[in-house]
Every structure is written in C-alpha cells, then in structure tokens.
Write a structure and sequence with these properties.
43% of the residues are buried. The N and C termini lie far apart (55 Å). This protein is mainly alpha-helical. A two-stranded parallel sheet has the order 1-2. Helix content is 74%, strand content 1%. It is built from 23 helices and two strands. The protein is globular, with a radius of gyration of 26 Å.
C-alpha cells in the first residue's frame, strides 16, 4: 500500500472531509431512528383506546396474575443469582482448594444452556414418569398417593431454573470486583483484626456492590425477556400474555399495552440497579496492584468449598447437557436428517444475516461517534443499544405494528403497478425477522466495535488525514485491517444470540419457517422431549463457542497472582 502526500498546490480537502462526517452523522441518525422505531410504536399504544373490551378483560382477569408472577419471579431470581454468583466468586478468589482452577472458568458454562432448554430437560428428569420419581417408587415401594414431590413446572421451579442459568452474570462481575478491588484493603482489614467473615461483609461485599447489582440487573432482564421456559412451565407472565393477546385474541393494541407494561418492569429494574449504587464511590488508592494471597483450605472445609462451587455447575450445565446427549443417542429424533439440516440452515441463515448487518451498523455508529462526538451522535449511539435491554416479545410487537402497515402499502402498490401476487413483501419473508433480531442484538456488536476502536490511537486518524485520506477512505484502508479481530468477535456474539432467540422468532418468522429454537420449543410443548433433544443440543453446543473464549480469558486472569503463603 503506497500513499502520497498531497501537493501544496492542490486545494484543501476540508470540504470532502466535512461531507464525509456529515454523511456518517446522517447515517447514524437513520440507524438510531430504525432501532428506536419498535419502542416508539409500543409506547404510542399506552394510552390508545383501541379495543378497550379486551384490555378491560385482561385487567379484570389475568393482569394481576401477570404482575404478581413477574414480581415473585424477579425477587426469587435476584436472590438466587446473587447468592450463587457471589458465593462462588468469593470462594474461587479468596480460597485455594482442589479443582479450584478448573471450577473458576467452568462456572460460566451454564450460560450456554438457554432457559427453555433447561426447562425441557428438568421436566423430563423430575416429572412423575421421569427417572427420579420412578426410582423412588421402585426403591421404597411407594404409590402415587404415598409421597409428595415438588412440581418442577411451577413458579418456584422457574425461579430455581433461571437462577441456575443466569448466576454466571453475577459470578463474572463479582469475581472481577473481588480480584481488582479487594487486595490491599483486605490486607488492611486483616491488620485491624478482621476475620474471614468480617472481611467479606465489611470490606469485599461493599466494594463489589456495584458489580453485583449490575450482574443481578442483567439476570433480571434476561428473566423478563424469556418466553419459552415460562410458557412451558405454565407461569403467567407479561411475555406469555403478550403472545396470547396477539395470536389468540388478535388484539395488537392489548398486546402493545402489555408490552408497555413489561417495558416499565425493565425500566424499573434498571432504575433499581442505579439506585442500589446510591452516591457511594469506591476507589482503590493503593499503587500496589498485586492480588491478595489465597487461603489454603484442607479437610472438610476444602470438601465443602468444592461442593459449593460444583453443584451450580452440575445442575446448571453438566446435568442438562448430559440428559440431552443421552436422549439424542438412545431415543433420537425421528426427524433427524433432512429436516434437521433444513432447520440448521434456517437458523444459520437468520443468524448470519443479522450478524453481518449488525456489524456494519455497529461500525457506522462507532466510527461516527469517533469522528463527531456531538451530544446528538452520542445520544443516538446509546439509543441504538436500547434493544438489548428489551424482551424479544416487546421488540416483535413494536416491529409488527409499523412494519405491517408499510408492508400492506407496498404489497398494494406492487399489485396495482406490477401485478405482484407473492404475498407480503417484508413480513412474508425474512426481512421483518432479521430487522427484529438486529434491533434486539445490535448492542453486543456496538460494544465489541467500540472496544476495538478505542485501541486505535487517534494519531492514526491524524496521520491518515495528513496523507489526504477522507474519513471513509481511512476507515477502509486503516481502521478495517486493525479491527478484524473485534469485527469477528462482534459477529460471533450476535450470531450465537440469534441462534438461541425464541420469542422474537416465534412472532416474526414467516409461514412454515422453523429454526432450531422454534423446533425445540414446538416439540417440547407437544411433550416430544426426545425429538426436541437434537435441536436443543445443537443450540447448547453452538452457545459454548463464545464461552470457551471467555473461559480462556478467565484462566489467563490468574497469571501474575501472588502465590498462597
């Protein structure tokens, strides 16, 4: 690559540079508007009269159950994820015990199992005809009336299930906080006579509180966004209500109003997370960055630490993955073969298209913010990432409301002027589904691209400008080669998220179009769990890819740690 400096006699290229910045800014505004459209469409129906009879019926019958179930679910999941995540993070960072090195990275693996897949496997394991209850009846000679067994398909079962799947969010953030902020202060606390428990509650826990609150908030947003698990368990939440109002009652206004109420729950969770931090600020003012020495455990204390860290891993990943593998190998899927290949192709197609579009838009947003960091561009940059905090059902309803109107207009126009007779142009194909998935999962791509751009020194931009390159040329010839790793990471994250997405796919998919996620949900809903095992297992295997990379980073994070005394 050869670059030549512009001749002094050549006019300044300030005008092309200014036009490039303007075009990037306009593109950012357009992307922000498209990403915000579903949310605006939902909010526009909050005070809409619509078919008030349906809304009045919902308020008089099921809405109180939706509110109560959602609140109980959020409180239970918050307590479960916080206790498991913080406890495991404290043990692997503060103490040394057998299997500690392997458990430290393996504790994130439950994130690879979608909640609805976990629901299918535990139902098969714990139901009346499942292996656990069957073994109990055979061992003790019990009949159905001789014993009581908790019902996994219940609100309490959903709380436990979500806690097992989502505790790694709290674990990862709490572990990082314990490692980075607690070293010198724990030594100071120990010099003041604080024991292990006092050090945890009076030093480490307050320092890690913001990180723990952020992890719990992420877990709660995933809980509010879920549809497959709560629907399969028969738990009445806002996501199941939205789906029922749209498809069973055919009332898009009631569905949008329920979606608005669910959006209110999301905003409440984010507000509580911010409020939990208060005005407290925690800073490590020590210059010494060495981490504290781990306390070696022996005997029953070491065994107890191993059990405390091992059981969430077994219950959250090893057991459901083993059940799926056993069902796939022994009973199998009658549709495995051509049908499975078709499902995999559909999933890969939607995921790849969404990942490619999300990466392009993320580069546009990130580079525009780098070129012109005005308040408007920064605001649009944040607004474009709002979709990740919204449940898939909310986004699907928000997309269908405006897109259906545009789709009907386009179809009428194409029929009138071109004799089109192929059905709806947008919602009848993959366009609407891909649009909803881009809105939902643009945030991971934006974060990955922003992280990559931050590593590129501004001197590179100045050098490119001095050589006469416009911003677009600098992006193509300078930044893209440096961003290859970040772009690949962004595409991988979006690809995996779309492969697991269920509610938006159920609502937005074209007629007779199934993915691995929808196939697993449909078969499991028909109590054909063995046939659902291959599709569910494929989703789990694909979900392991980013976690393998994350686990390696966690293992590297131990390098340089002070050895135990």
């Amino acid at each position: 690559m050869s670059l030549t400096l512009p001749s002094p006699s050549v006019p300044s290229r300030a005008r092309p540079v200014r036009f490039s910045v303007i075009w990037f800014s306009l593109g950012t505004l357009l992307v922000g508007g498209l990403m915000a459209l579903p949310v605006l469409a939902v909010l526009s129906h909050v005070l809409s009269g619509g078919t008030g009879e349906t809304w009045a019926h919902l308020m008089a019958t099921v809405l109180p159950d939706y509110i109560r179930s959602t609140l109980v679910l959020c409180v239970g999941v918050a307590m479960g994820t916080a206790s498991m995540g913080v406890g495991a993070a404290w043990l692997v960072t503060r103490y040394d015990f057998p299997l500690r090195g392997a458990l430290e990275w393996a504790l994130v693996l439950p994130l690879a199992v979608p909640a609805y897949v976990m629901a299918y496997t535990y139902t098969d394991l714990l139901q009346f005809v499942g292996p656990v209850q069957t073994a109990l009846r055979e061992a003790f000679g019990w009949s159905r009336a001789d014993y009581w067994f908790p019902d996994v398909r219940s609100l309490g079962g959903a709380v436990v299930l979500f806690s097992l799947v989502l505790y790694p969010y709290v674990y990862m953030l709490a572990r990082t906080a314990f490692l980075e902020r607690a070293g010198g202060m724990l030594e100071a606390g120990r010099s003041l006579g604080l024991g292990p428990w006092a050090s945890f509650f009076r030093v480490s826990l307050p320092l890690a509180r913001p990180a723990i609150a952020a992890g719990v908030a992420l877990a709660l947003m995933e809980t509010l966004a879920d549809f497959g698990a709560v629907s399969y368990f028969g738990v009445q939440t806002f996501t199941t209500g939205i789906y029922r109002a749209w498809f069973s009652l055919g009332d898009r206004v009631a569905a949008a109003q329920l979606a608005s109420a669910l959006l209110g729950f999301v905003i409440l969770v984010l507000a509580l997370e911010r409020l939990s931090r208060g005005r407290a600020r925690f800073h490590d003012t020590t210059l010494r960055r060495a981490r504290f020495a781990a306390v070696r455990l022996r005997g029953w204390r070491a065994a107890l630490a191993v059990v405390a860290c091992l059981w969430p891993l077994v219950a959250g990943f090893l057991l459901p993955a083993g059940i799926l593998l056993e069902m796939a190998l022994t009973e199998g899927d009658a549709q495995f073969g051509t049908r499975f290949i078709e499902l995999a192709r559909n999933s890969v197609t939607v995921s790849a298209l969404t990942a490619a579009i999300a990466v392009v838009l993320a580069v546009l947003l990130g580079y525009a913010a780098r070129l012109h960091a005005s308040w408007l561009v920064r605001s649009v940059h944040r607004l474009a990432g709002l979709g990740y905090a919204l449940p898939g059902t909310v986004i699907a309803v928000g997309v269908l409301i405006p897109v259906t109107r545009v789709d009907n207009w386009l179809t009428d126009w194409a029929t009138r002027w071109g004799g089109w007779d192929g059905g709806l142009l947008i919602t009848g194909g993959l366009t609407g589904l891909v649009y909803a998935c881009v809105v939902r999962f643009l945030t991971p791509a934006v974060q990955a691209v922003d992280a990559g751009l931050q590593k590129v020194t501004p001197n590179m931009d100045n050098a490119a400008r001095s050589l006469g390159l416009t911003p677009a040329e600098a992006l193509r010839r300078v930044h893209f080669p440096l961003l290859r790793g970040s772009l690949l990471t962004a595409a991988l994250l979006v690809f995996i998220d779309v492969m697991k997405e269920l509610p938006a796919t159920l609502v937005m998919r074209p007629f007779n179009f199934d993915t691995l996620a929808t196939q697993a949900y449909t078969l499991a809903s028909d109590e054909r769990l063995a046939e659902a095992s291959t599709a569910a297992l494929a989703i789990v295997v694909v979900g392991l890819l980013p976690l393998i990379v994350l686990s390696r980073e966690i293992a590297r994070g131990r390098q340089g740690e002070v050895a135990p005394h």
